[in-house]
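Fill in residues.
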C-alpha cells in the first residue's frame, strides 16, 4: 500500500556509516518500500567549509574535548529547507533534553518532516540553537559517544507507528507504555517446555477472561517493575478499573 504523503526524516551526522543497517531492519524496510516514510542520512562533512572536511574544533575557553561547529549544520539545514520548500521540526538528540516517552513518540509520528541532529564530541556550538528553534530530546540519563544511536532509536520508535509500517496496527496499540502500563507476558508453542506450562487461562478459549487476565498481569507487572509508572497510572485511574 503506497502512502500519498510519506513522512520525511533527515538525519544530520558526521558518521553516516553508523546508520548503514538501520533502513534494512524489518519494520523500517517495510515503511520505506510502501512509501510510508523517507529516511535520508546526510554527512555533515559534505557541508563544511573546512578544506580537510573537519566539522569540529577546540572549545573557546579551553577544556577537554572538541565541539561540533555551527557552519556545517547551518549549511545542511539551509540546503534541505531550500530543496524541500517547507519547514521541519528540528530535533537535537542530547542527554540534556526532555525524555523520549511513548506519548512523545506518538506526537512526533504525526509530524510531516523531522530533521535529527546527531551531536558528537564534547558538544555542539551553542549558537546552532540561537538561529533556529530546536526540540532537544534525551533517550535516558546516561552518556553515549554521540547522537547517532539515540537518533536510530527515535526513528525506529516513530516509524513503526506510521500507517502501513506494521501489518497489524493493533499490535502497536497494545505495547508497553501506550496507556501507561507495561505489557502482559506472552507465550507460544509448545504448551509445555522443560516442565513449564502455558497458563491454563490462555488455553481456555474464553476471550473475555483472557483479556481480563492479561490486564491483571499488566497491573501486577507495572506495580512491581515500575512503581513510578504505577503511581502515575493509579492516580489517574480507579483501582477497580475493568475491561470492556
Amino acid at each position: 500500500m503506497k502512502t500519498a504523503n510519506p513522512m520525511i526524516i533527515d538525519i544530520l551526522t558526521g558518521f553516516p556509516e553508523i546508520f548503514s543497517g538501520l533502513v534494512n531492519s524489518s519494520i523500517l524496510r517495510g515503511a520505506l518500500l510502501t512509501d510510508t516514510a523517507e529516511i535520508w542520512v546526510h554527512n555533515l562533512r559534505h557541508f563544511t567549509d573546512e578544506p580537510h572536511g573537519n566539522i569540529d574544533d577546540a572549545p573557546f575557553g579551553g577544556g577537554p574535548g572538541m565541539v561540533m561547529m555551527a557552519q556545517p549544520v547551518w549549511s545542511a539545514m539551509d540546503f534541505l529547507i531550500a530543496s524541500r520548500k517547507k519547514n521541519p521540526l528540528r530535533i537535537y538528540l542530547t542527554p540534556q533534553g526532555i525524555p523520549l516517552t511513548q506519548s512523545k513518540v506518538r506526537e512526533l509520528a504525526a509530524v510531516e518532516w523531522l530533521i535529527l541532529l546527531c551531536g558528537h564530541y564534547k558538544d555542539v556550538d551553542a549558537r546552532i540553537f540561537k538561529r533556529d528553534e530546536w526540540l532537544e530530546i534525551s533517550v535516558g540519563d546516561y552518556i553515549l559517544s554521540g547522537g547517532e544511536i539515540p537518533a536510530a532509536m527515535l526513528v525506529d520508535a516513530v516509524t513503526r507507528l506510521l500507517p502501513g509500517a506494521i501489518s497489524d496496527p493493533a499490535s502497536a496499540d497494545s505495547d508497553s507504555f501506550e496507556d501507561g502500563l507495561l505489557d502482559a507476558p506472552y507465550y507460544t508453542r509448545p504448551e509445555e517446555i522443560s516442565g513449564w506450562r502455558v497458563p491454563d487461562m490462555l488455553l481456555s478459549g474464553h476471550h473475555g477472561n483472557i483479556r481480563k487476565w492479561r490486564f491483571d498481569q499488566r497491573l501486577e507487572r507495572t506495580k512491581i517493575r515500575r512503581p513510578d509508572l504505577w503511581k502515575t497510572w493509579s492516580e489517574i485511574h480507579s483501582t477497580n478499573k475493568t475491561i470492556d
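The chain has a mean pLDDT of 91.
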